[in-house]
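Writing this down once: the sequence line spells out the residues, with the fold written below as integer tokens. This is how one looks:
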Amino acid sequence: QIEQRIEPAKRAAHSVSKRLQACLQGQCGSEMDKRVKKLPLMALSTTMAESFKELDTESSLGKALEMGCCIQSSLAKILAEFEITLEHDVLQPLNKLSEEELPIILKRKKTLQKLISDWNTIKSRLNQAAKSSSNSSGAGAGPGASSAANKLEILKEE
């Protein structure tokens, strides 16, 4: 039952993470300055800056290009900050969830199921030994039952 919930969650986290990474315009993991320089918005800002320098400073086209340059530069910085925050607050936790935490949960669940099965087997052997023997100490199954019970309790606590 838990596998039916964990596997879809793992696939969803992985798919969403990949789609979000595809939406990023900057390079994942790069520093702010490098990311800003590689954004298309910054390339447009640089082109506008170069273009308005060639025009008359009082011309309406020159003023429009200068204003557009500043706006595009600001937008590039805002976008880079947003992408860095998105990586830190969303992508990294999603990747950790799908690649580390959910597989650990599945592994522990399987271990717990095996220990429960071992425990039940030992318990039934102990009950059979108690029935067949007038001495109900269960000396043959005692140490195994104790070990399985300890492992079971440790996993239940996790």
Remarks:
- The CA atoms of residues 31 and 84 lie 9 Å apart.
- The first helix runs from residue 2 to 23.
- The radius of gyration is 31 Å.
